[in-house]
Each structure stands twice: as structure tokens, then as C-alpha cells.
Amino acid sequence: MTNQITVLVVDNEPGFPELAGEMLERERDEIVAVPARSGTEALEILAQRSVDCIVSDYEMPELTGLELLERVREDDPDLPFILFTGRGSEEVASEAIAAGVTQYLQKESGEEQYTLLANQITNAVRQYRTETELRENERRYERTLATLHETTRDLMRAGTKAEIYQSAVDTAGEILDVVVAAAYTFESTDGVLEHAASTSDARELVDPERTFERGEGLVWDVFSDGESAYYEDLTREDGITTTETETLSRSELIVPLGSHGVLVAGATDVDGFDETMTELLHILAANTEAALDRAEREQLLREHDRTLTRQNEELTRLNHINGIVREINHGVAQASTRTEIETTVCDRLADTERYRLAWIASNDDQPPEPAVWAGVDATYVDRIRADGQCAPETALIRETLDTNRVQLVRDVLEADGWDRRRKEALTYGYQTILAVPITDGDRQYGVLLVHVEGVDAIGDGEREVLAELGETIGHAIRSVERTRAMLTDSRLELELECGDSGLLLNRLSKRIDGQITLEGVIDRGSGIVAFVSVPSTAELDGLESERASIETLSVVSEGDDETLYETTITTTPFLEVLRSFDVQWRAARVENGTATLVFEVPQGIDTRSLVESIRDVYPETELVAKRETTTRSARQLDTHLEERLTDKQFEALQAAHYSGFFEWPRESTGEDLAAALDVSPPTYHYHLRAAERKLVRLAFERDSN
Predict the structure, then answer these.
(1) In this structure, is residue 614 part of a structural domain?
(2) Lower Cβ count inside 10 Å, N or C end of the chain?
(3) Could you tell me what percent of the chain has a pLDDT over 90?
(4) Which of these, 593, 442, 588, lies nearest to 521 by C-alpha position?
(5) Domain boundary among 298, 316, 351
(6) What is the DSSP secondary-structure string of 376-427?
(7) pTM of whole model > 0.90?
(8) Is 523 contained in some domain?
(9) DSSP string computed for 441-495
(10) Which long-range CB contacts under 8 A does 695-702 form with residues at least 24 apart?
(11) What mean pLDDT comes out for the span 476-500?
(12) Is 446 in the same domain as 458?
């Protein structure tokens, strides 16, 4: 607000307006007088410039003082108007007050009247300006509230948090007339406050990459405390890290936006925020926080709706896929060969709208290539075979076999190394490829590959279903191989030499002078019971306390040259390998730290994989011989016997045979064998008698047939 007071002095007496103006300027330095010699001239001056006060005579030609007042009041009802007249009657005073003059002063002789007139002018103008400023503040406050109201509607209509932050800072800059306004949002993942928005005037000065970490600056302090803070003079704040706004402003008001962030406003003056500005910024911040809460809820609802939609779609797809898998399982259960199983799987998958094509690569082939396929012609298969080691499918299959886990190519058109399949992908309409290991326990039979339309089109649920399908296929293949092995008299016999010191038999030979012979093995799942012959001079007492893998050790029989021991051995990685390949022990001889091992392997087993698996456990192992053998017809008897005997009966019969129970004279007793199998003697004899009865009945029934 300026201190200068412009006074229009109106009087028709020649020279008086100039004299009165000069006297008033002499009384008050801030007064600047403008003379007018008539009411008409006064109106002309008012049309060209504004004044702060009018001092007018009462009696004037053309327009009297009160008539001039009436004309002035039409434009400004509150402009100070002092009637300064020589007529001092009560009638004139009453008429002037009724007309709405600000003050009434009668002309007198002497300079004292100008002192009084100057005081009246100063007081009237001060009051006028105060009232005008109050009215302007009220109007500005009303406009600001209207702006806030409109902003609130905009905030509630904003679709994103970024729009809300920008609307808030733009409104703060408009209603507060501050040098800068900015908003910072809390990024919960990194635990920092990030720049969200700032006013257009300050965008070149505020670094949008600026962040505030834990405990850094006033912005973080206000956010962590959850209470607004006003800094009248930032230069007096000790130990603070200046923000972008602090480098531009002298005073600063920071208001938290709940858990969302903070709103910052800066002014160039010290103590640049009055109560009204503070209140308005708090109202704006509250509305912004509410809008952010609303946007966050709506975002969560949208994400929830999308999740539900996606889950419903996936559930529908999984139900369909489960139906397909049930059909495949039914077909696989009726298949009698591995090729029939694999063909059934590929045909059923490719026959659906879900999968464009399906094929199986056997791990017997090097490099792996399609063995069975459906939904694609031979040209595509020939292309894969021609690429050989360079085929992207080869790398995918090997990764699947190495990890024994499902592998996914999300987009063939974008994935590294798959550019050579772009034409085929576009021709057959697929982009996603899923590779599923075909396994049964530790046994691997190959990889199933399915091709699906769309990018990343296979969800977690579908992967799990197809992974289970891979296990089902592996179990079915192993089942038919076992069945074929039982029905054929042809067997494959492998002879290995193992000089690895990790093998238990090799470790035993180091303390025995002579040959160790494995007479027989009973596999009990959790471990094995082995019958081992050693020279009679060998001392094995206390061996079970020295070796963690040996649980029990006891003498079964003693001869002149050899002693037969029964030992219980815990499951080891070596035994797990033999079980996974359905390998049967046939013989084992150990001498001078080197074991000769003979195994019977079912037909169809990949011997290379078997030997490599054994080498993984015992690296110093070599394949000595591989020979085809033909079993006697008694093998069929063994098969029927295993089907009729219980596990306990079969163990009892095996133990009796391997321990010389059926020799004469007997090399072991029923009590010895009961102790070896950890059962009571009556229980052992019961199982043995039952096994003998079933064996005799089976032998006679077979002869009669």
C-alpha cells in the first residue's frame, strides 16, 4: 500500500484551490493536491485519473458540492468526500451529512483549519483504504475458496496420482502467489521421497530427479513426523539440507499428505505466509490427500478387478486343460509302448484350440530332436533336425534336462537366439513355447514342448498342470518298460570296475587281506541288507561304530576259509542311482581296493546315462563289458513269485537263501536271520513258512498247467 495521498481540491473561488492545496501539502508530506475550479472540471479530472480524497466547496455554479458528491457516488460509493465550505449553518451541515459526505468542515481564517483538514483527509483515506483492502481480501478469499472448490472437483475427477499432484501444485501457485510450489511422493519400495510435480515457473529450477532419503532435509522431517511445519526464515535454520524450493525461497510452508508424501510452498519474503495463506494450503493439502486416497482405492479396485478377471480366465483355461490332461491320462493308461504313450500325448494336445503344436524330444538322441510330433508337418521337424546343435530348441531342451524344471520362452519373436524361427512362428501362429521335463523320480525320458498363441500366454497354474503331466508321462513310460522287462527273457548285463575310495566295499578291502564277495542283497527301501563273504582271518568287529553308513554288522556263519556277514547299510547316493534305473545287483567282488560290479539292466535303459550317473557318485568307474543275457524260464517263476509274496515273506525267503539256511548242514539259524531282519524268531518263521508254501504251490500249479 502506497503512502501518497492524492487530494482533489474543488472550489470556484479564483486561486483558492491552489492555495488550499499548497497548505495541505505543507501540513502533510504524503499529500499531493490537484486543483479544480468547478464541479465539471472535477469530473473531467476524475475521468482521467484516480484520487484518494475529494475536498469540495458547497456553493459552486453548474454543480454544487452535494451534486458533485452525488455524481461521484455513482462510481465509488465509499470514496472519501469532505465538504469544505464557508456556509456554516446547521441546515447545510444536516443536508451534507444526509447526502453522505465523509466529513464536514467550515472555512475559517488562519492556518489551523488546514491542520484540521489535513488530519481529516489522512484519517478518512486511511479508513477508506483499510475498508477497501478488507473488501478486496474478502473478494479474493471468496475467489480463492471458489478456486479451491473447483480444484477439489478436479482432484476428485483426476484419473492418476500424477494428475492429482500437478493439479495441487498449480492451485497452490495460483491461490497463494508463491515463488514455487512442489509435491513429493513417497516411494515405498525404495523408501524415499521422489519429485512428483512443481509449478510451471519453477520447473526449470526444480530437479525432477531429486529424491530425499531417510532423515534428509526438512521435507523428510515433516513427512516422517506427520505434522506441518512453517519456516519463517530458512537462513536461520541450522543443520538442514536445502531442497530445491529452499534455494528459491526465504520462507517455506511444508504440509504432509498422509502416507502419500508432502506439499511444499515457498515465498521470497521472510515470514511470507499469513494465517489465511496457511489455512488455504492446509485445506488444499487435505483435499489432495483425500483425492490421493480415492485414487489409490480406485487403483486397488481396478487391480483387484483385473486380477479377478485374469484368475477367472485362468481358472476356465485350467479347467479345460485339466479335462485335456484327464483324456491324456486315460489314453496313456491304455498304451502298451513308449511310442504309443508319446503319440497319444502329442495328438491330444495338438488337437485342442489351446496348443498350436506339440512334440517330444527323447534324451537318447544327441543332439535332442523331435521323436514324436503333432500339429505340424515334417518340413518343420526337418528344419529343427537340420539346425542340429544350432537349433534354439536344442538349447531349450538341454536347459530343461539340466535343471529338471519347466522352462518358458515368453516370446519367440523377441527372445535371443530364436530369430531363425520367426517365419515358422508367424506361419503356425505361436509365440510362447513351454518345455516340460518328462521324468519319473530321477529318471529322465526327454522333454515335451508345447507351442501357444500369444506372448507370455502360459500362467503359473498351467505350468504346474503341464509339469505334473510330464511326471505322469514319465511314470507311464517307466511302467511299460518294467512290464516289458518282466515279460522278456532278454536282459542286459553290465560289468563295471570301480577303484574309487568312496565305495564302501573298496574301503573295507583296505583292512582285509583277500577277496570280498557280495553274496546277495535285500533292498528294504530305507536301506539294504547285504550278505558279504570275507576271509576267515578278517577282523570286522566294531566296524559299525567306525562307518556311519553301516548300521549293523553280525556274523551269519563261520567256515574254515570264509566268514559270512550280514550287514545293514543306509541308503546312499549310489543305491539311489541303481533304484532310479531299476538296476539289480548280480555280483560284486573286491580285492586290493578295486571292485568288480555286475548289474542286470532292463532293456530300453540308456546305459550311457546309467554309467554317467554312477560316475557322478564314484568318478573312478569304468565300463568293462556289456552283454546280452537270456534268463531261464525260472525268471517267469520269479515274476509270479514276487506278485504273490508279501514284502516280509519275500525278504524272509531271500535271507534264508543268501545265508545258507537251506544248506546242509545249515550255515545259519532262524534266530540268526530274525535278528538280521530285526523281527522276532516266531515272526520270521511264520513269514518263511508262508513263503515256502506259496513257492511250492506255485511250482506245482505251473507244472499242472
Answers:
(1) yes
(2) C
(3) 21
(4) 588
(5) 298
(6) S-HHHHHHHHHHGGG-HHHHHHHHHHHHTS-EEES-TTTSTT-GGGHHHHHH
(7) no
(8) yes
(9) TTEEEEEEEEEESSTT---HHHHHHHHHHHHHHHHHHHHHHHHHHHH-SEEEEEE
(10) 695/641, 695/653, 698/637, 698/640, 698/641, 698/644, 699/637, 702/637, 702/640
(11) 78
(12) yes
pLDDT of residue 636: 57
Distances (CA, A) of 142 to 70, 168, 371: 30, 18, 82
**Other CB atoms within 10 Å distance of the CB of residue 338:** 22
Residues 625 and 643 in one domain: no
648 in the same domain as 621: no
Mean local confidence (pLDDT), 617-632: 79
Do residues 341 and 406 both lie within one domain? yes
* Cα angle for residues 26, 28, 33 (degrees, 5° grid): 75
Distance between CA atoms of residues 314 and 387, nearest Å: 35
* 219 and 189 belong to one structural domain: yes
- Residue 654: pLDDT over 90: no
Q: Which pLDDT tens digit goes with each residue over 218-228?
A: 888 898 888 99
The three cell numbers of residue 22 are 499548497
More confident residue, 465 or 511: 465
CATH number at residue 289: 3.30.450.40
- Those residues whose C-beta lies under 8 Å from the C-beta of residue 141, and which sit 6 or more positions away, are 276
Question: What is the C-alpha to C-alpha distance for residues 457 and 616, in angstroms, rounded to an integer?
Answer: 38
pLDDT at 126: 92
Residues 266-290: pLDDT tens digits? Answer: 888 888 888 878 888 888 888 888 8
DSSP label of 647: H
Cβ atoms of residues 412 and 422 within 8 Å: yes
CA distance 525 to 310: 45
Could you tell me the CA-to-CA distances from 463 to 131, 359, 448, 503, 530 in Å, in that order?
A: 78, 16, 12, 40, 43
Kindly tell me if the per-residue pLDDT of 556 is higher than 70.
yes
What is the domain count for the chain? 5
User: Which residue, of 275, 298, 321, is where some domain finishes?
Assistant: 298
Domain residues for the domain of 649 are 632-705
DSSP state of 365: S
Q: Is 513 exposed, middle or buried (0-12, 13-18, 19+ CB in 10 A)?
A: exposed
Cell readout for 610 is 546309467
Residues 3/30, Cβ–Cβ less than 8 Å: yes
CA-wise closest residue to 286 among 259, 264, 255, 265: 255
Asked whether residue 634 carries a pLDDT value surpassing 60, the answer given is no
636 to 260, 490, 641, 653: CA distances (angstroms): 78, 12, 8, 17
Q: Grid coordinates standing for 662?
A: 537251506
Cα 24 from Cα 51, distance rounded (Å): 15
In a domain, 309, yes or no: no
Longest CA pairwise span in the chain (Å): 165
Residue 300: burial class (beta carbons within 10 Å; 0-12, 13-18, 19+): exposed
The span from the CA of 565 to the CA of 539, in Å, is 11
Pairing of strands 443-452, 550-558: unpaired
DSSP conformation class of 541? T
Which residue in 302, 346, 305 sits closest to 328, CA to CA?
346
Rounded Cα–Cα distance for residues 174 and 199 (Å)? 9
CA–CA dist 425, 18 (Å, integer): 100
